[in-house]
Amino acid sequence: MDYILNPTFSLMLAVLVLYIGRFLNKHIPFLTKYNIPEPVAGGLVGAIIFFLIHQFLGYTIAVNKPMQDTFMLMFFASIGLSANFAKLKEGGKPLVIFLVAISVFVVIQNAVGMVVASAVGLDPLMGIIAGSIALVGGLGTAGAWGPIFETKYAVEGALPMGIASATFGMIVGGLMGGPLARYLIKKHDLAKPLTEETQKDNDNKPIADSEYIFEAPKKVRLITADNAIVTLGMFAFALAIAEIMKNITVGTIFELPTFVWALGGGILLRNVLETGFKREIFDRSIDVFGNTALALFLAMALVSLKLWQMADLAIPMLVLLIAQSVAMWVFAIYVSFRVMGKNYDSAVLAAGLCGFGMGATPNAIANMQAITRMYGPSHRAFLIVPLVGAFFIDLVNVVVIQTMLQIFG
To answer: Membrane-spanning residues where (predicted)?
Structure first.
């Protein structure tokens, strides 16, 4: 029997999950030592409880999906609303290098998937589903492509396989990024852990002009009711643009995931208001609402993971996904970290790459937040990852998937 929580109880559950994650991180040194984000820690506990309820009592409990999707879209809209053209230009050469590197990884991810799928007796196209469709693309992309693979390419079970792979990737992406960055930082002596007192002092300092959205989620942002109202209106406008564009482009070559349109709507609105109408944009309000949406979305998404779908995966599928995890680890350490300069920023970028390369951009942000709170800020990482992970890479992914399907489909 399925139970879907209404919006009120879904919100209460998400907040409870966040506080559970905070409690666990505070009292379990392992979680803090390896920089596991609070929403991941609390969300997995909730997912395990719901798994046990499903297995022993037969009940499936889920949060309100429209509310979860709204927080997700608000998160991506906040990235767009914080990305003026000056910041895009500021990303410069490093942003381009990172995008090229990750574009190469999208191809590698699908190639690894197809080779391993063939080796273990699966349809090679399953390697694409358990490749960039489910991992770089995430749950939404897996849900969109699954029916297409089942009907057009006769890949039986593509939809549940894609959802299970995205679920696996979301967990691994949230668990892998922190330890990998910590390994790089310690191995190359890139930074020293901040003392607990320093961390608290940093949290209490006012937000600096050099800090980007999501970079310091625990810092105080001073906003007013008027700022909040205007900012909420901007979020609503960006989400309205996303809804309109989703309906206009459905079934066309321009069809993109809704969150891409939300991000694009935010960019458009920000720069039209700021450049065209010379209006002041309240970045502090965008920070507050963006970080709130990120935390609540991650909590809802992780607690809603249907772990029994992963339990039902065949051994060949698990082998494939383990191979993808190894490929991600190797690429992050030996390619991404090196081409981005082998410095502290590169290590933080590697943590972000694990987040959106295996799961989703919110995972990437959470991974980087955990690292920078422990070791100090990385302005470059928080400039590059949201733009590449939430926008540019989705465009690249669509092109790569379409090309490989034309060749191998």
So the answer is: 7-24, 44-63, 70-88, 94-116, 128-149, 161-185, 222-242, 248-268, 288-308, 314-335, 347-366, 381-401
Q: How many residues make up the chain in this entry?
A: 409
Distance CA 329, CA 332 (A): 5
DSSP 8-state symbol, 333: I
**Mean pLDDT of residues grouped by 10 in the chain (409 residues)?**
91 95 88 73 89 90 91 87 71 88 95 93 90 84 76 79 80 89 95 81 61 61 84 95 93 79 89 86 86 86 76 74 94 96 96 89 87 90 84 82 84
Quote the Cα angle for 354-333-128, to 5°. 50
Please give the biggest Cα pair distance in the chain.
Answer: 60
Four-residue CA torsion sign, 343, 347, 393, 130: positive
Place of tokens 């992780």: 302
* 297, 71 Cβ separation under 8 angstroms: yes
Q: Among 221, 251, 216, 255, which residue's Cα sits nearest to residue 377?
A: 216
- Measured in whole angstroms, the distance separating CA 396 from the mean position of its chain's CA atoms is 16
Are 289 and 76 within 8 A, CB to CB?
no
Nearest Cα neighbor of 63 from 45, 41, 47 is 47
User: pTM value?
Assistant: 0.74
313 close to 333: Cβ distance less than 8 angstroms:
no
Q: With contact defined as beta carbons under 8 Å apart, do 159 and 144 qualify?
A: no
Protein fold of 2-408: Na+/H+ antiporter like fold (1.20.1530)
- Using CA atoms, how far residue 86 sits from 20, 379, 397, in Å, is 39, 15, 26
Hey, what amino acid is at 29? P
- The whole-angstrom separation of Cα 38 and Cα 28 is 12
Which residues, in sequence order, are bridge partners of residue 188? none
**Which tokens in the block code for residue 218?**
């625990």
Buried b or exposed e, range 37-53, using 16+ CB within 10 angstroms? bbbbbbbbbbbeebbee
Q: Contact 299/242 with Cβ under 8 angstroms?
A: no
8-state DSSP, 390 = I
